[in-house]
Design a protein that fits this description.
Strand order of the largest sheet: 19-18-20-21-25-24-23-22
CATH superfamily of the largest domain: Class I glutamine amidotransferase (GATase) domain
Distance between the termini: 38 Å
CATH class of the largest domain: Alpha Beta
Helix content: 10-25%
Shape: elongated
Radius of gyration: 47 Å
CATH architecture of the largest domain: 3-Layer(aba) Sandwich
Strand content: 25-35%
Length: 763
Amino acid sequence: MIRWLFNLDSIPEGDSLQLGWLSPWPLWLWILTLIGITLFSIWCYRSAGIARSWRFVLATTRALILLLVALLLNGPVLESPRRITTPDQVVVLLDQSGSMQVPDVGTDDGDYISRQNQMMDLLQNNRNLWSDIDEQRSIRWFGFHGYAFERIPSEEELFPVIDESPGDRTRVDSSISSAIAMSSNSPVSAVVIFTDGRSDQDMNPRDVAEIRSSGVPVIAVPLGSREAVGDLVIEQVTAPNQAFTGDSVPIQVAITRRGAANEGFDLVLQDRRTGEELDRVRVEPSDMSRVESTLLGIPDDGGSATWRVLIEPDTPDLVAENNQNDIDINLLDEPLRVLYIEGSPRWEYRYLKNLLIREDSIESSIMLLSADSNFAQEGDRPLSRLPVTREEFDDFDVIIIGDVPSSVMSPEQHRLLQDAVAESGSGLLWIGGETSTPSSWGSTDLVDTLPFNGPYNLPKIGSPIQISKTDEADRVGVLQISEIGSSEWPQVLGDEQIDWSKMQWAQWIQADQIKPTATVLAETIRVRDQGEPIPLVIGARYGLGRSIYVATDETWRWRHGRGELFGEQFWIQLIRHLGRTSLSATRGDAELIPSLRQVAVGQVVQLRMKVFNESILMQLPKLISVAVVDSNDRTNSDVGMRRNGEIRDTWIGSWVPPRPGRFRLRVDVPGLQIETDVRVEDVSTEYRQPEADHAALENLVEATGGQILLPENLGELDDILPDRSVTEIDVQRAGLWDTPIVFLVLILLLAFEWTVRRVLRLA
């Protein structure tokens, strides 16, 4: 009944009530109003012809009516004040960038886990902490790498599960700023960020200023190793696809030092099947970010060489998985086919001819042009004439041109030999001479295969010289001359007191004559009155093949000191180096060629397939699918290649690698199965400096008024979170001007005054 009289439906039952006003008058207005009501009420009945007591009663009633009206004008209400507290929220950011995959966190059992696993262990091992915080506050979870994104845990979990691929960028400051902005619907106690601090950009002052102006402290939990641990990475391994059994195969390795990895290490070549160590190179500590070295392996069985390149660091390395790389080389157990053309029987010819004949891995054909018609040409496969067709030139892997005039071959033969080098990948070895090479070849087509420019009438050096290999020779694995039981360049070849190590004749090739694409493989050690070394062995690519020029014919002198040892190493390695280019250029029915064999994630790779077999070409459709197969032999995607317009033997397409790894691009259609390899590297800054950056976190929390909370102290988080909850007074009001009780009181007062006036017969 009372709730109806006072219209209390809008106020919860049981709440305390108090009188309030919507438009309260000031005190002076109330005083004037009361005076006015009193005077007006007295004036209304001052001259009424009734008893004084009735005048008092009627004036009082009139005053009460007017006072009630005045009260209603002030908006009387019944108020029920309630305290409402809005709890604050804790914003938690979880780093999901690529650097979180780095396993640099030591465990009690001596193993290493990734920073991401460290973070998930911290969340899992502190479930009670998150449960307590969630009871008092709300927790808002975010993941971040290049930007922040909200993560909502499932109903069964206190925190989200991270199962997405890691991001390749990190923006710590902007992610914090974005998370605060997305959480602005309620007060934020603090931002708790789990991160290794590694960001691919410096802190943005604008983002830091926004965080500071928000007044929200940042509590950073640093993940990863506190001490900078660098990472050695085998970035690239270059090896021939095919080689000869017994060949000294060069394996060129590029190693990148990331972060603080300036320690020394051993680079090892190992047989995967037997575990046998084939070669080892020591790399000393340095600040060089990239190191290139060459390992040499000698396969002794046919079939294939299954080798592994390993890094053995002096100190623990950040990521052990990128310290090895497997390579497979197809081995040919057949002799290398060599044609040697010489003008006269000079001493170098006699030595090299005998070497080619007795070398089991070489099938030689030797043409001595100065011999008379009755002379029996020598070699394993003697010839009666020089090749005159392209097929006859292609029958040889390496062609050696000694000191012979260019006129021994016709211009057509010059062109055919040039095409054999450029298109079939044949190797061409020039041996300089005093009479014709290279002077008589300057006006022929073959001059383009020489690794230096004219003038070609080269002067002789004029004094005895000694030879030494260059770093480029080490890189490509040639001129690896050494004493028995040693791997170092023989000191005797540089000893000025030893006459047999000196070459009495050599051609003088100026340094500015060397073509831009050519490299010097050997040079003089010392020359009288000459400060700079003079090139003696120069190599260059020419089309699919390779050309090498040797500017001396005096290596036979080494026989006086070491017999056949040094000479065999010198010539056999050069010949096999040239022969490997012939193997790599050998064509099958078709070839699938990527524009790049080592690319970055997201870089476009152009694909081209060329078919050489006419019978297969007639059967192929216009659209061919290329399967992209990862290292686990799983097909990741398919790439379409279309026939290239009018060029009916060529198909083209493109592929964009989505992630790092080694991939095989495979074409498997009826009548044709070919494949090729592409290695995809992640070159983002996430992996260039993989060590944690705790110093950046310290700078961030200092600039934003936060603090560092070490992982082992995470249990103290609840105690240091500031209380940013907001308490508000919510007043529920029920107006009295339209309530039944006010209406009844007003009616009763009016009725009472009217009744008394009627009884007293007042107008």
